[in-house]
Design a protein that fits this description.
Blueprint (H helix, E strand, L loop, with lengths): L11 H11 L17 H8 L8 H12 L2 H6 L5 E3 L5 E4 L2 H33 L3 H11 L6 H12 L7 E5 L10 E6 L2 E10 L3 E6 L4 E5 L3 E6 L2
Antiparallel strand pairs: 1-2, 3-8, 4-5, 4-8, 5-6, 6-7
Helix pairs in contact: 1-3, 6-7
């Protein structure tokens, strides 16, 4: 097999699995993570310079994904031992670094909580009765003397009440997308808010507000727009 026949690892998940195999004392995929040596990317780039499976761009993205994860941010505590690629001590976590990591973690959690909180009032508002709906419902439920025709008319009137305006998704032109931009990403049958962290020719990478990073095609990315 020649070098050109080797398939490059294209996702952060696959690259991190490979790194955990090559440097098990440094990268872990389950359980508590270890604080990494400052400049660990440069060490990785040097060690894997001749590895045909990994490109430097994909490697950088995977390391960023690893160090931005909630599991990693939790391990960055004052005076925790940093490790190099071989698992050897490489300095202690400074107070400023620990504070920054905990701030990132708190902000990520707050974003997820805020998204959940904002979805509840919207659901409640959709289900709540308007004065007109409440009046019609009382008439429909009133005992004695109400004909089936009136009840049917009441039900029809309720159904014909105008629905609340819902946010529409506007396709995001590829030429207008940039790293750091806030977008909506279609994941399965749902749309999730996130921030673009990397843009490639055929796809892009988005960090969701729940802390996860996903790789998506351009046609799965939208801009939020309110209907008028």
């Amino acid at each position: 097999m020649t070098m050109n026949d080797v398939t490059k690892l294209s996702t952060s998940k696959d690259i991190l699995t490979y790194l955990a195999e090559q440097f098990p004392a440094c990268f872990v995929l389950t359980g508590p993570a270890h604080p990494l040596k400052i400049g660990i990317f440069d060490d990785l780039a040097a060690r894997l310079a001749d590895d045909p499976k990994i490109s430097k761009t994909r490697l950088r993205s995977a390391v960023r994904h690893y160090t931005n994860s909630w599991r990693y941010l939790r391990c960055i505590k004052v005076d925790s031992e940093r490790l190099d690629l071989d698992g050897k001590a490489a300095g202690l976590v400074e107070a400023s670094h620990a504070e920054h990591a905990q701030q990132q973690l708190a902000e990520a959690k707050a974003q997820v909580a805020a998204k959940k909180d904002t979805s509840k009032p919207e659901a409640a508002a959709t289900q709540a009765d308007t004065p007109a709906k409440a009046k019609l419902r009382k008439r429909a439920q009133a005992p004695h003397g109400r004909s089936k025709t009136n009840a049917s008319a009441t039900t029809t009137a309720i159904k014909q009440q105008p629905a609340a305006i819902k946010p529409a998704l506007k396709p995001a032109p590829a030429a207008e997308l940039k790293v750091g931009q806030q977008v909506q990403v279609k994941v399965a049958n749902n749309t999730v808010s996130g921030q673009i962290t990397e843009i490639d020719r055929n796809d892009l990478q988005v960090q969701l507000h729940n802390g996860l990073t996903v790789k998506v095609q351009y046609d799965a990315v939208y801009l939020a727009k309110q209907e008028s």
